[in-house]
Amino acid sequence: MALKSNYSPTPTLECGCDEAGRGCLAGPVCAAAVIFPYGYTNEEINDSKQLTEKKRNQLREIILRDALAYAVVEVSETDIDQMNILRASIHGMNLAIGQLSVKPELILVDGNRFTDRWGIPYHCIVKGDATYLSIAAASILAKTHRDELMTRLADEYPAYDWKHNKGYPAPKHIAAVNQYGLTPYHRKSFHLKNQLSLDL
Fold first, then answer.
1. Strand pairing partners for 74?
2. How far are the Cα atoms of 169, 170, 193 from residue 173, in angstroms, in the given order?
3. 79: which of 31, 104, 167, 191 lies 20 to 30 Å off by Cα?
4. Taking the CA of residue 94 as centre, how many other CA atoms within 13 Å lie in the half-sphere pointing to its CB?
5. 122-125 and 106-110 strand pairing
6. C-alpha 188, offset from chain centre
7. Within the chain, where are the H helices?
8. Which helix (H) or strand (E) holds 125?
9. Are the CB atoms for 39 and 6 separated by under 8 Å?
10. What is the rounded distance in angstroms from the CA atom of residue 133 to the CA atom of residue 35?
11. 76 burial via Cβ count (<10 Å: 0-12, 13-18, 19+)
């Protein structure tokens, strides 16, 4: 089923925002913002979690080609430790919006929490990445950017299997932390055992 092209019933520069890596033990959280032409359609774009890695990479090139504007940013492990993961995610989305070459008139955010820094009207939409094209596109850009980064970092610390788990708390990753401890890329503001129970 195709996602919705727009939130507004009248032509509006709508910016979809999403992040990737919020539930990870290691690496930055990445946030993206995407503006499509009003009425843009693409039946293949979907929530990044519903797509294969190959399909995400294919769609990334289409999104970069078709978007009026886009931006992807990283918020480091250090910043996450200082401000907490939820604030870091919102901070990252605001940074991405600020880097757009076109100023949006409306912001659509995946989830139920956001604080706007730019004085632009916004809507928080639960499961927005499975509802609106611009949010889904942002999820794809954030996810592919972060996955590439974690794959590169995996060469420095192969024992943690980041090439496959991308920093999420998979069994091999947790086992490596228990055996070798934390790397400089691990988030240190919460304990490993508590990561999955955090109210994000």
1. 30
2. 6, 5, 13
3. 104
4. 15
5. parallel
6. 20
7. 53-66, 77-83, 85-99, 133-154, 162-165, 171-180
8. strand 122-125
9. yes
10. 10
11. middle
pLDDT in tens, 44-79: 999 999 999 999 999 999 999 999 999 999 999 999
Task: Quick: pLDDT tens for 152-172.
Answer: 999 999 999 999 999 999 999
60 closest CA partner among 5, 141, 131, 139: 141
Residue 41 CA, distance from chain mean position: 21
110 and 90 Cβ atoms separated by less than 8 Å = no
At residue 192, what is the residue type? Answer: L
Average pLDDT (187-200) is 54
pLDDT at 189: 79
What end-to-end distance do the CA atoms of the chain give, in Å?
29
- Written as six digits, the tokens of 78 are 């250090």
Measured distance CA(71)–CA(153) in Å, rounded:
22
Backbone angles phi and psi of 198, in degrees to 5: -65, 140
Give residues with Cβ within 8 angstroms of 24, minimum separation 6.
166, 167, 168, 169, 187
